[in-house]
Amino acid sequence: MFFLKRTENLLKTYGEFFKKDSIVLDFCAIKYDSISMRQEEKKAYTVKITKEAQKRVKKMPLEVQDIFTVLVEDIKRNGALRTNWHNFSDLGKGKYHCHLKYHWVACWTWEKGTFVVEVYYAGSREKAPY
Hints:
Distance between the termini: 26 Å
Helix content: 25-40%
Radius of gyration: 14 Å
CATH architecture: 2-Layer Sandwich
CATH class: Alpha Beta
Oligomer: single chain
Number of domains: 1
CATH superfamily: RelE-like
Order of helices and strands: HEEHEHHEEEE
Number of strands: 7
Strand content: 25-35%
């Protein structure tokens, strides 16, 4: 996955914050209060990113790509319901979204009872499919 190199750099940069209660990235306040619960269950979520979403992420500014990477890692660890993210909302029918920055959003689908999440859109909020 093309995010692996970015994730390694991101963890080097923000790794110390993952040990704390929260990490603050501009408009995003991300609380990691359920990491320990998810690790106890030892169930990891699989995050699939559509090719269209991957293309859009590559066009984002690097700072927003980093935030997207943190979101994907958060979903893998803690599941699809990321209520601790800025402007998280349930779009209905198993679809969710949150803001990465003011002009950037990510949208994903998840069916209850599964451990597979699909990110179907990541890009500007003006073109978001909601």
